[in-house]
């Protein structure tokens, strides 16, 4: 749930959401809810209103205050209770939202609770006829940091200079606690001041323009690696020592290899936009790759259903069985730092060893009729397609390991295109051809 504060989301609305969520969780035998919030100006007020809705329904509340989203997931797992995180992630300052989870960070999706909550919001949340819950506070930052460091051994790594752009988001709060305690790491901070107005750039590292400052800092400081976190610090992007971005698919492959070394033969989840280098590597290492739709709820469901040890998305969300199946950009960063510091290769060589294909990245086109444009593209490629599937939009397999995916946005009149092939020239040619049809 996400919207513009004061227009689409306000205290009355989130109080009702809190009450409806509490009713849903009480029906699943929960007795308390843990609540965290990011650094946006509206977050403390909205989280307090949500807490009031929960308390009125007879459940207790544990407020952890400022937190990253993955710290909230930690709290849900550590305390064994449902959770709510107030953040709009990478969205502009005027937005806020709520991320909900069940106990142990299990997801609450459209078909697993959100529709029930929405219906109660429309019809009116029934009042609770019992006693109100009680409110308390916990500080879990130190426990969160210690838990993450316990999952990845950084002992014995070579000294690394690590430039970090927190984007004035929650990474400025969690990075010092997690990475600052590792003696081998020399952290070079950028935009660590918590500021929900995002005065320097949007806290969305998926957009290349928001990586420019980190890229310059890496070059100027002589850093071995750069890390960029989004607003709620659940996603982590990597820049090598030359200031060049390392694709999330390469990071997925790197982490998958490390996790499979711990548990040979395990399952690894990847969404259908992730590079084909990921399932190929997993298979070569004796693991079982499982392909899913795009979106954290689908990944989390597959993590639970398959018992997967790890999952990765092209958007730099990384999911870990050891982290209750939830995503943690910080945990992914620890794996990358362990791999980099455990060898003598620079990040550029380490990253390129996992990036065996060229990719377009996601390209959005505004269209009047997404279905009609998609069918036009399929018609143009029908004689060249090796295979077509509709797991999420349409994915067209082409000769020589090339493929593309077209997906319609659920909320905007957009078609999203992703292309992968063996060379940049092949990717560019396919992008030009496909966009000429989509935008024609």
UniProtKB/TrEMBL annotation:
Highest rank taxon of the organism: Bacteria
Protein keywords: Isomerase, Magnesium, Metal-binding, Phosphoprotein
Enzyme class, UniProt record, top EC level: isomerase
GO MF term set: metal ion binding; phosphoglucomutase activity
Cofactor: Mg(2+)
Ranges where the Alpha-D-phosphohexomutase alpha/beta/alpha domain occurs: 1-118, 143-243, 249-354
GO biological process: carbohydrate metabolic process
Alpha-D-phosphohexomutase C-terminal domain ranges (all copies): 362-435
Annotated InterPro entries: A-D-PHexomutase_a/b/a-I (IPR005844), A-D-PHexomutase_a/b/a-I/II/III (IPR016055), A-D-PHexomutase_a/b/a-II (IPR005845), A-D-PHexomutase_a/b/a-III (IPR005846), A-D-PHexomutase_C (IPR005843), A-D-PHexomutase_C_sf (IPR036900), Alpha-D-phosphohexomutase_SF (IPR005841)
Pfam families named among the record's database cross-references: PGM_PMM_I (PF02878), PGM_PMM_II (PF02879), PGM_PMM_III (PF02880), PGM_PMM_IV (PF00408)
Enzyme Commission numbers on file: 5.4.2.2
Sequence similarity: Belongs to the phosphohexose mutase family.
PANTHER family assigned: PHOSPHOMANNOMUTASE
Name assigned to this protein: Phosphomannomutase/phosphoglucomutase
Record gene name: algC
């Amino acid at each position: 749930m996400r919207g513009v504060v004061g227009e689409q989301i306000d205290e009355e609305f989130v109080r009702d959401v809190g009450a409806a969520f509490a009713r849903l969780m009480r029906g699943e035998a929960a007795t308390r809810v843990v609540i965290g919030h990011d650094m946006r100006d509206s977050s403390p007020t909205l989280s307090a209103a949500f807490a009031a809705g929960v308390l009125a329904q007879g459940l207790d509340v544990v407020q952890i205050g400022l937190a990253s989203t993955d710290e909230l997931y930690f709290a849900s797992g550590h305390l064994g209770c449902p959770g709510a995180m107030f953040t709009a992630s990478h969205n502009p300052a005027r937005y806020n939202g709520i991320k909900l989870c069940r106990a142990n960070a299990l997801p609450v999706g459209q078909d697993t609770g959100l529709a029930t909550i929405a219906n109660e919001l429309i019809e009116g949340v029934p009042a609770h006829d019992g006693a109100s819950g009680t409110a308390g506070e916990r500080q879990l930052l130190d426990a969160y940091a210690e838990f993450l460091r316990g999952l990845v051994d950084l002992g014995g790594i070579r000294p690394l200079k690590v430039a970090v752009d927190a984007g004035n988001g929650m990474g400025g709060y969690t990075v010092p606690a997690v990475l600052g305690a590792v003696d081998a790491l020399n952290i070079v901070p950028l935009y660590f001041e918590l500021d929900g107005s995002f005065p320097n750039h949007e806290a969305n590292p998926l957009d290349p323009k928001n990586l420019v400052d980190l890229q310059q800092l890496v070059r100027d400081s002589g850093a071995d690696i750069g890390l960029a976190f989004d607003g709620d610090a659940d996603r982590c992007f990597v820049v090598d020592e030359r200031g060049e971005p390392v694709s999330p698919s390469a990071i997925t492959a790197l982490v998958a290899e490390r996790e499979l070394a711990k548990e040979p033969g395990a399952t690894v989840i990847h969404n259908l936009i992730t590079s084909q280098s990921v399932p190929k590597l997993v298979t070569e290492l004796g693991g079982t790759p499982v392909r899913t739709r795009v979106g954290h709820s689908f990944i989390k469901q597959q993590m639970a259903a398959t018992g997967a040890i790890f999952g990765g998305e092209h958007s730099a969300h990384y999911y870990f069985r050891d982290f209750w199946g939830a995503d943690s950009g910080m945990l992914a960063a620890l794996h990358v730092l362990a791999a980099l510091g455990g060898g003598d290769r620079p990040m550029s060589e380490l990253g390129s060893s996992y990036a065996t294909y060229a990719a377009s990245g996601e390209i959005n086109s505004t269209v009047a009729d997404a279905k009609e444009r998609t069918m036009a593209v399929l018609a143009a490629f029908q004689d060249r397609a090796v295979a077509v599937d509709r797991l999420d939009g349409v994915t067209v397999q082409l000769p020589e390991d090339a493929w593309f995916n077209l997906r319609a946005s659920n909320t905007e009149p957009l078609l999203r295109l992703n292309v992968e092939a063996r060379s940049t020239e092949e990717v560019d040619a396919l992008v030009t051809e496909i966009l000429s049809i989509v935008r024609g």
